[in-house]
Amino acid sequence: MDKVYIEGLTFQATIGFYAWEKEIKQTLVIDLAMGWQIAPAAENDDLSKTLDYAEISEAIVEFANANPVDLIETLAERIAAFLMAKYHIPWLRLKLMKPHAVHNASTVGVEIERGQPLTGQQR
Ligand SMILES: Nc1nc2c(c(=O)[nH]1)N=C([C@H](O)[C@@H](O)CO)CN2
């Protein structure tokens, strides 16, 4: 299956279970792989036939800031559902990290896979 990637998308958002976390913004980092048939875009050299990683990166940051939640699990699920619906993405793997949450860990996070990978016939 072909994929379009965004790795290390780093941004600030309000996220966290504790009251003090609702008053600040914290760093989040996303790695995202999206199943997509890239041949039509390549054949026509046409951005409109693929997933625009620049547009999607902006959409993720806007969505995260418009939808503050407690848990990174909740944000990961909501971003996945939002992207799949808006961009008709059949399958994605999303890793959401909160690097400064645990002082003696380099990062913490969740990783989810949603949807169905494209089969050979759909490629
Ligand atoms: N599995 C999770 N564990 C924790 C989360 C979370 O979102 N998922 N969040 C917190 C706090 O918000 C933490 O980041 C503050 O130190 C704790 N554990």
TrEMBL record:
Q: Which GO terms describe its cellular component?
A: cytoplasm
Q: Check the record and name the Gene3D superfamilies matching this protein.
A: 3.30.1130.10
Query: A single GO BP annotation from the record?
Result: folic acid biosynthetic process
Q: Ranges for the Dihydroneopterin aldolase/epimerase domain?
A: 4-114
Q: Does the keyword ATP-binding apply?
A: no
According to the UniProt entry, its GO molecular function terms are: dihydroneopterin aldolase activity; isomerase activity
What family classification does the UniProt entry report for this protein? Belongs to the DHNA family.
Pathway(s): Cofactor biosynthesis; tetrahydrofolate biosynthesis; 2-amino-4-hydroxy-6-hydroxymethyl-7,8-dihydropteridine diphosphate from 7,8-dihydroneopterin triphosphate: step 3/4
Protein name from the UniProt record:
7,8-dihydroneopterin aldolase
Question: What is the annotated role of this protein in its UniProt record?
Answer: Catalyzes the conversion of 7,8-dihydroneopterin to 6-hydroxymethyl-7,8-dihydropterin.
Reaction catalysed by this chain? Answer: 7,8-dihydroneopterin = 7,8-dihydromonapterin; 7,8-dihydroneopterin = 6-hydroxymethyl-7,8-dihydropterin + glycolaldehyde
Write out the coiled-coil annotation as residue ranges. none
Under the heading SMART domains, the entry gives: FolB
> What is the protein's species of origin?
Colwellia chukchiensis
Keyword list (alphabetical) reads: Folate biosynthesis, Isomerase, Lyase
Instruction: State which Enzyme Commission number(s) the record gives.
Output: 4.1.2.25
